[in-house]
Amino acid sequence: MTHSALWLSQLQFFSSLSFMAIFFAMELGLAWLLLIFRLRTLSGLHSVWLASYRFWVRVFALTVVLGFASSLPILIQLGSLWPGFSSRTSEVSGPLIALALAVTLVFKSGFLGLMLFAYRTLPHWLHTAVVAIVAIGSTVTVSVLIALSSWMQVPTGVQWQDKGYLVTDWYELLTGPAFVWQLAVFLLLSMVVACCFVMAVTAAKSLRRPADESERRAFRLVLWVLLLSTVLLVASVWGYGQMVVQYEPLKALATMARWHADADVFWPFFAYPVSPEAGNVYSYGWRGLGAMWIPVSETGDYRGLEGQSLLPPVALVFFSFRIALLLGAAILVTTVLTCWRVRPQHYDPSALSVGWRRVLIAMGAAGWLLLVVGLLYHFSGALPYMVNGSIKFTDVFSDVPFESALVSLVSYAVVYGFCLVGFFMLVRYIVRYGVVPVARRRGRA
Fold first, then answer.
1. First-to-last CA distance in the chain?
2. Residue 439: helix, strand or coil by DSSP?
3. Is 159 helix (H, G, I), strand (E, B) or coil?
């Protein structure tokens, strides 16, 4: 086995996870936004909110297809790149993955069809209930996958026996200390990603023509949902960080770039972590801040990375966390300023300057980038472990040749690139020409 082949395989696995996470987040966030739109159609402004619902339900259907398709490479790579993972965690990963697939088939294959094609044949209240079931089904699917991810981060409810894990308590496994915080962070990130995308598309449409009543009302609702989701996301990240300090101390120390146990309490805003001998280069920060983010030993002393084995890539963990913070802060500030600017104009995006609308268009990419960078922090902080403290990536690696790993990485990158290009081409089409027809027969949306 060469380290280069291992790194390429890890990069391939992370790129597949990122692609899947983007469209799972888009699907989940749009599902709940569509439910809000559909509920508003039951009020006196039926036609206004229905226009927003009919526009975005097409984008939602596309994200469902891409989300399901992007999950298949993950299953393939778990068997081809990390075959030892399934054999050692089959009692945990097997039932959870099977449950996620079953929920997907039941809720999406059944109720998604009613949601997309039975608008005119079902009573309004029943179709709204179908939309709610689809949103709940998407949430349950994500929750099951988050349960597997959180178990890998903090393995509880299991016992190691004969080179594999045996489940001793399913309730403890499913409600581990990392589950609540991971689920809260991903749900709120999904809303942020979806709201940023909706605002970006609405701003792009307003550059071509003035926004109509449905777009103004949807823009107002999404703007406030984004503001609330971003504020709650900050609180969830704080709770997630406290969990990391307790159960992943090396990840927390890498986040703080704290090499020496006897160093002063210091929050580095910017630094370049090198090694325990060289320390941090160009370290700037605030002394006395960040004590709650530093793990302590059994004697109550602050810990450091010096002398620890199997360290994560400290620089990657350090920078990914700070880039995520900067992106989150940029989204929050942009949202607040947009509320301040657009409120006197009755939340009409067409009243904003062209430059500010281009900023809102860039927010669509910022939401995706925030999700990917946050996933990078979560992924890199766990290295070299696949299951924290027990199973390393090297233990379950299939030892593929370097050339095969490189070709596979490039091939997946090309496929993902084509999928993204196709997605943006369709979004660009509906921005220019309106709703994409799904079917012309009566009884379909």
1. 54
2. coil
3. strand
